[in-house]
Amino acid sequence: MIKVGIVGGTGYTGVELLRLLSGHPHVQLTAITSRKEDGLPVADLFPSLRGKVNLAFSAPDKADLTRCDVLFFATPHGVAMEQAPALLAAGVMVIDLAADFRLKNPATFEQWYKMPHACPELLPEAVYGLPELNREAIRSARLIANPGCYPTTMLLGFYPLLNANLIDAGTLIADAKTGVSGAGRKTEIATLFAEASDNFKAYGVSGHRHAPETVAQLQRFSSQPVSLIFTPHLVPMIRGMHATLYARLTSDVTNEQLQALFEEQYKDAPFIDVMPFGAHPETRSTRGSNMLRLALHRPGNGDTVVILVVQDNLMKGAAGQAVQCMNLMFGCPETEGLQHTALLP
Ligand SMILES: NC(=O)C1=CN([C@@H]2O[C@H](COP(=O)(O)OP(=O)(O)OC[C@H]3O[C@@H](n4cnc5c(N)ncnc54)[C@H](OP(=O)(O)O)[C@@H]3O)[C@@H](O)[C@H]2O)C=CC1
Ligand SMILES: CC(=O)N[C@@H](CCC(=O)OP(=O)(O)O)C(=O)O
């Protein structure tokens, strides 16, 4: 059994990890932290876990985290990097759901996250935890930077076209929408029911931290400088993310060839569903599941290809993806504990 700990077990990605890992046949939940709920049985806070998780929360400084084989940090940016060096030295693997290890350049991290990096020496070895792009590296990693939710949709949508050198890397556009759970469980005026329901707005238009993360990863697959215009929106949903991606084709290619390219690229990816050309994927077809669905369009058969991508931000966008990485790191089947079908309605 894999002894697993979760730092930040009371947040939305933390409780999603608990839901997934409590049903994982090779996992023994060993430590779950919360500063605010120290001593409280997990199932008292989350009755959905009654009979499934018998642990109590403990404060991070009281929990002996070195008993774990792997620790998930479902915490705000800046927490994992303070503890990762000691944990790795003690032989504990680390999967960070925040951004501490996503950007290789510490100056870029500092620019976007407004804090100095606590352990820049670990950045070169951290593996970006997107299995569809990095499966082999994840298998042998001990430190995983789990991708941001928006970057997961943008990377998996643009990657096949960029890798095949079929699009102009300098004019990528992503128009994306997500629900309020993306902002976490902490209190914030913008995510109050009276503010977010019956409302719709863009945010971070002049700069969102997921743009540099996405560009850095896409750049690995392009000899041309990658440039991305990314506009996120908050929509009145709880879970879910929809990205509409636009790219300009630079080669003569048929719609059938584009479709075949995506189908071939993701034929061995258990959590990517390449839908028929011209389909309209819906966020609820992914709710509670680790599937990411995408579909290609070519308006007017012109030189713009539109890729529609949907996922559950808490699953493929966060906790599900992190468990997918853990499965690879410990030699479990990639889909173990992740085979839920989406909830309808
Ligand atoms: N929500 C989403 O859709 C996604 C989130 N992420 C990232 O995952 C991480 C977690 O997000 P989310 O679950 O939404 O966040 P939440 O705000 O819902 O939860 C944060 C958790 O971290 C704990 N925590 C806060 N500060 C500290 C600290 N200094 N030390 C230890 N524990 C702390 C909190 O518990 P307590 O205060 O009791 O200790 C709580 O359990 C974030 O970095 C986020 O950016 C990534 C992709 C998608
Ligand atoms: C609605 C909302 O606020 N969404 C979050 C989603 C980002 C996220 O959670 O991912 P990170 O780990 O990269 O922060 C945002 O745009 O900041």
TrEMBL record:
Gene Ontology cellular component terms for the protein in this record: cytoplasm
Instruction: Specify the pathway.
Output: Amino-acid biosynthesis; L-arginine biosynthesis; N(2)-acetyl-L-ornithine from L-glutamate: step 3/4
- Provide the reaction this enzyme catalyses: N-acetyl-L-glutamate 5-semialdehyde + phosphate + NADP(+) = N-acetyl-L-glutamyl 5-phosphate + NADPH + H(+)
InterPro entries, A to Z: AGPR (IPR050085), AGPR_AS (IPR023013), AGPR_dimerisation_dom (IPR058924), AGPR_type-1 (IPR000706), NAD(P)-bd_dom_sf (IPR036291), Semialdehyde_DH_NAD-bd (IPR000534)
Give the molecular function GO annotations. Answer: N-acetyl-gamma-glutamyl-phosphate reductase activity; NAD binding; NADP+ binding
User: Catalytic site residues?
Assistant: C149
Pfam families, alphabetized: Semialdhyde_dh, Semialdhyde_dhC_1
Enzyme Commission (EC) number: 1.2.1.38
Q: What class of enzyme is it?
A: oxidoreductase
Q: Does the keyword Cytoplasm apply?
A: yes
Q: List where in the cell it is found.
A: Cytoplasm
Keyword list, A-Z: Amino-acid biosynthesis, Arginine biosynthesis, Cytoplasm, NADP, Oxidoreductase
User: What region holds the Semialdehyde dehydrogenase NAD-binding domain?
Assistant: 3-141
The record ties this protein, via SUPFAM superfamilies, to: Glyceraldehyde-3-phosphate dehydrogenase-like, C-terminal domain (SSF55347), NAD(P)-binding Rossmann-fold domains (SSF51735)
Instruction: Return one Gene Ontology term, BP aspect.
Output: L-arginine biosynthetic process
- Which family is this sequence assigned to? Belongs to the NAGSA dehydrogenase family. Type 1 subfamily.
Write down the PANTHER family for this protein, in alphabetical order.
N-ACETYL-GAMMA-GLUTAMYL-PHOSPHATE REDUCTASE, CHLOROPLASTIC-RELATED (PTHR32338:SF10), N-ACETYL-GAMMA-GLUTAMYL-PHOSPHATE REDUCTASE, CHLOROPLASTIC-RELATED-RELATED (PTHR32338)
Annotated function:
Catalyzes the NADPH-dependent reduction of N-acetyl-5-glutamyl phosphate to yield N-acetyl-L-glutamate 5-semialdehyde.
Q: Would you tell me the protein name for this molecule? A: N-acetyl-gamma-glutamyl-phosphate reductase
